[in-house]
Write a structure and sequence with these properties.
This protein is an alpha+beta fold. The protein is built from two helices and two strands.
């Protein structure tokens, strides 16, 4: 199986940093591989989303995860 952190494609960001476009499932799998338990994995994923380090595309683009 390919590593969960494999990006589907790379886009140039205006800040000069590379953006990796991947699926939410691949992010979840990558975090779950390193987390000690499910609660830690959920906390890390919520932090990544709320801090803007990970941005969702598509129908969840404007979703607020503060309710979780």
């Amino acid at each position: 199986m390919a590593p969960a952190t494999t990006a589907l494609k790379t886009r140039s960001a205006s800040s000069g940093e590379e953006r990796h476009v991947t699926t939410l499932l691949e992010v979840v799998n990558a975090v779950a591989e390193l987390a000690h338990n499910d609660d830690e994995a959920v906390a890390v994923i919520l932090h990544l989303l709320s801090s803007g380090q990970v941005k969702l595309l598509g129908e969840f683009t404007e979703q607020d995860f503060g309710f979780l």
